[in-house]
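[09:14] KT: can someone run the structure on this one? pasting the chain below
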Amino acid sequence: MMPLTMAVTGERNTIVKITGRDEVRQHLAELGFVVDATVTVVADAAGSKILAVKGSRVALDKTMTNRIMIEGGGKDDEDA
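[09:31] RB: done, structure tokens below
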């Protein structure tokens, strides 16, 4: 298990845990970041990441990506 900040661009990962206050976890859940969801890093720019999750693309800063714990690291063969 590692934070999403350490994910490699283009690899598919599974969310295993969301940390932080209830309000933060609820906000991330509303964006699609829930346990067992698949997330792919589309781009990494200046500490922020553009992520593909549940058919949408979302940009999160390092503070938020540190709260999302992932496993996996399979190459994403499909267009995210």
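[09:33] KT: thanks! The first strand starts at residue 2 and ends at 3.
[09:34] RB: yep, looked fine to me
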